[in-house]
Amino acid sequence: MSAQLVPGAACESTLLQRTGCEDDAFSFSDPSRERVLKCREALLGRGPTTANPPTCSDARRFLSECPDAAGFFWEGQRP
User: Fold this and answer.
1) Cα separation of 64 and 14, whole Å?
2) What is the pTM of this model?
3) DSSP code of residue 52
4) CB 62, CB 39: distance < 8 Å
5) Distance between CA 68 and CA 59 in Å, rounded?
6) Mean pLDDT, to the nearest integer, of 2-10?
7) How many CB atoms lie within 10 A of CB 68?
8) pLDDT in tens, 25-43
9) Using CB atoms within 10 A of its CB, is residue 74 exposed (0-12), middle (13-18) or buried (19+)?
10) What is the DSSP secondary structure assignment for residue 19, as one 8-state letter?
11) Contact, 45 vs 60, CB < 8 A?
């Protein structure tokens, strides 16, 4: 069973482990770093803290406009 990301919960360690970003040898391949940075705008529109999470419409926009970036965070898994 995969770890689920619960809204409002600290999820940094789960994402670091799931994406491999914690590995010193990590580098972006597909999607590219530039693509991930561009796509994150939808999720950070209300600010970069969990105190102001993205709206549902922003999250839907991220998922529909950036399925490759969303897939990176899911590591091929689906909820």
Assistant:
1) 23
2) 0.58
3) S
4) yes
5) 14
6) 58
7) 13
8) 877 778 888 888 889 888 8
9) middle
10) H
11) no
Residue-averaged pLDDT of the chain: 78
Backbone region of residue 30 per phi and psi (left: phi > 0; alpha: psi in -120 to 50; beta: other values) = beta
> Over pLDDT 90: what percentage of the chain?
15
Three-state secondary-structure class, residue 67: helix
* Angle value at C-alpha 76, between 66 and 62, nearest 5 degrees: 20
DSSP state of 14: H
Which pLDDT belongs to residue 4? Answer: 59
Question: So what's the pLDDT on residue 66?
Answer: 92
Q: Respond yes or no on whether the N-terminal peptide bond of residue 67 is cis (omega within 30° of 0).
A: no
User: What pLDDT is recorded for position 1?
Assistant: 39
CA distance 72 to 66: 10
